[in-house]
Amino acid sequence: xxxxxxxxxxxxxxxxxxxxLLAMIIIDPIGEFPINDDWAYAKNVHDLVVQxxxxxxxxxxxxxxxxxxxxxxxxxxFGFSFTVLRLSVTLLAILSSLVLYDLIDKLSGNNKFTxxxxxxxxxxxxxxxxxxxxxxTDIFFLSFIIFCVGAFVSYFATGKFMYYILFIxxxxx
Length: 173
Known about the structure:
α1 (about 10-25) runs antiparallel to α4 (about 80-105), α4 runs antiparallel to α5 (about 110-125) and α4 runs parallel beside α7 (about 135-160). The protein is globular. By secondary structure, the chain is mainly α. The protein has eight helices and no strands. Helices cover about 70% and strands about 0% of the residues.
């Protein structure tokens, strides 16, 4: 209630995108090197794009089908590199922050400032922001969780069956 009358002059989604661009300038994700364990996940993409074989190595010990296909789509368009794979996850982080903003905005009764503040707090926390510039599975998984919840809330708000289909699609991914 403290900021209920606070009016934003710039659309909150533009503020989010500008903050992501500022984070990209500060962090500078460009470079041909793995970060943490993303070398293991990138290897699956490399095998699919370069060697044309789909293989999920035993080391990651998880089913990387969706993320491998997602990363391979970017690698097929822009060439295989750690930079391309990192930026593909950064794109997901940006998209999920926009969906998260919409979700919080709906659930907070269209309080734009609260939605923006909570989204910024979540997305630019040290863990989310740092992992947004890797090809590790954390942001990939969390983005699709946010997409799922966003679609599910939209389905219950509107009753449109399309949102239910999107919910199922994002759950499968």
